[in-house]
Amino acid sequence: MIIAIDGPAAAGKGTLSRQIAETYGFQHLDTGLTYRATAKALLDAGLPLDNEEVAEKIAREVELAGLDRDILSAHAIGEAASKIAVMPAVRRALVEAQRTFSQRKPGTVLDGRDIGTVVCPDAAVKLYVTASPEVRAKRRYDEILSRGGEADFAEIFADVQKRDERDMGRADSPLRPAEDAHLLDTSEMSIEAAFQAAKVIIDAAL
Ligand code: C5P
Questions:
Q1: What pTM was computed for the model?
Q2: What are the residue boundaries of the Cytidylate kinase domain, all occurrences included (predicted)?
Q3: Hey, which of 14, 45, 179, 202 has its CA 20 to 30 A from 191?
Q4: So what's the ipTM on this one?
Q5: 128 lines ligand 1 (CB under 6 A)
Q6: What is the distance in angstroms between the CA of the first residue and the CA of the last residue of the chain?
Q7: Could you state, in order of their start, the residue ranges of all structural domains in the chain?
Q8: What does CATH list as the number for 2-205?
C-alpha cells in the first residue's frame, strides 16, 4: 500500500508524513531530500547547477539510506534543489529510485510534489496538503525563531512565493493535485487536526 502526499513548500507535509508512517508502521521517503542531496553533491564538488548531464550522473549516485534532513536543510540547498528539479533527466533518475522505494513492505509513505501525479499514480491514498503562502511563510519564520535563529518575514514570504512559482510553473511534473487527491488545506488547522483529518481518509481506504 502506498500513501502519496504532495503539496507546496512548508505546507506541513513532512511532519504529517512522518506521523502517518509511524502510525501505520510504513516506511517513509521524503522525496525532496533526493533533490536536495543531488544539489548538495553538486555544490560540494563545485559543479555547475545548469548542466543536465552532470546533474543526472550525480542524481543516479544518490543513496536513499544516507538522506538526512538536518544536513540538507540549508536554504541554499533548497534553492539549488528547486533549480535542478526542472531538469527531466534528473527527475527520471530520482523518480526511478523513488518508485523502487515505494514497493517496500509493509507499505510506504512518499511525500513531495509529483508523487500522486507521476511517481505513484496508482497510490491507494493521495493527499494534497496545502496552506496559504502567508501561513506557510509564518510557520517557517516561527520555526527558525524557535531554533534561536534570525529571520526576516518579508524575505521568507518572497522566498515561498518564488519556490511556488518554480515548482508549479515547470514543464516537467509541475506541482498540482492529482485528480483523485484529497485536498487538505491546513491554513487554519493544527498539526494534530491535520493528522486526524488525514487518518480518516486513510482508514477509509485500508
Ligand atoms: O520539499 P523540499 O523543499 O525539500 O524540496 C526541495 C525542492 O525539490 C522543491 O522545491 C522542488 O523543486 C523539488 N522537489 C520536486 N519533486 C519532489 C520533491 C521535491 O521537484 N517530488
A1: 0.95
A2: 3-193
A3: 179
A4: 0.98
A5: no
A6: 9
A7: 2-205
A8: 3.40.50.300
